[in-house]
TrEMBL record:
Lineage summary: Bacteria, Bacillati, Actinomycetota, Actinomycetes, Pseudonocardiales
Domain Fatty acid desaturase positions: 56-267
Protein's cellular compartments: Membrane
Membrane topology: Multi-pass membrane protein
Protein's name according to its UniProt entry: Stearoyl-CoA desaturase (Delta-9 desaturase)
GO cellular component, one term: membrane
Oxidoreductase keyword on record: yes
Keywords: Fatty acid metabolism, Iron, Lipid metabolism, Membrane, Oxidoreductase, Transmembrane, Transmembrane helix
GO molecular function: stearoyl-CoA 9-desaturase activity
Amino acid sequence: MTQTLQRPPNTAEPMLAGEKSRTETFLVKLFAVVPLLALAAAVPFAWGWGLGWTDVALAIGFYFLTGLGVTIGFHRYFTHGAFKANRGLRIALAATGSMAMQGPVIGWVADHRRHHAFADREGDPHSPWRYGTSAAALAKGFWHAHMGWLFDREKTNAQRFAPDLLADRDIARIDRWFPALTVVTLLAPAVLGGLVTMSWWGALTAFFWASLVRVAVLHHVTWSVNSLCHMIGDRPYAARDKSANFWPLAIASMGESWHNSHHADPTGARHGVRRGQLDMSARLIWLFEKVGWATEVRWPKPERLARKLNPGYSAAPRGFGKAERGLLTETPDRSRS
Ligand SMILES: [Zn+2]
Ligand SMILES: [Zn+2]
């Protein structure tokens, strides 16, 4: 059985904006593969001489700092507008997300909006279903959705998919600063590790674990949302694509692996909408709302989710506690899918 891809409607702007240059594709490959090789080489490293608590603390710290920059910033805020942020938070989110080394913010957002516009259909930059549904086609599709798509030379047209960000001077500047932020994200752990241990060796091990390994692991977790979370897992909500909730990645992905719920309600600030579904990013947005940095947060609406429920699933999402009363307030529906 082969998958027939439906042709999406045409709009005024072309989908692609030419091809990436050879240098650009080379750099994408380099930064995707080198940290991964570093991770493999790390296995023989032993605790006590090449790895210590300072490295672990820095690796975890930078993992979540940059990861939340992507999940809260690039994804829920810049791509989907799940809340409004003050200028400081907006800049901080763009900068920390850029430090995840997943590309500059505007390109990331354009690709991801294109993913939602064409999810698992022709035009989706990273659908694992691109080649069909046979085992061989899915193996090829998994690779394509996980990281192969990054090596494609086609470039999503930001004029069409992210004109709001192109017009924003702060964001356009941070977008241009991506190479500098890459240097920062790689060097900061080394500098901190060196200062804490007051040794060159401490700087080197921190660079290894908290720069290279940390970037590699976050890359694979993020890519898994594109690959695994469109292949395996639970589908409690009706979506026009094959998105699924894959629980094993809930913590590592900071709530992004509740991907079926996300595709069912793309502008929602919380993806883990059902009972027991950990969503660290949503908790932090809640905290930003408490201190007043985030406003007009689009907490999921139980009645909207209930309408999208697939047969066989109970309507009861997670308990709506006092702290989350905002969930039940009605806000205008600006959802984009
Ligand atoms: Zn998706
Ligand atoms: Zn999304």
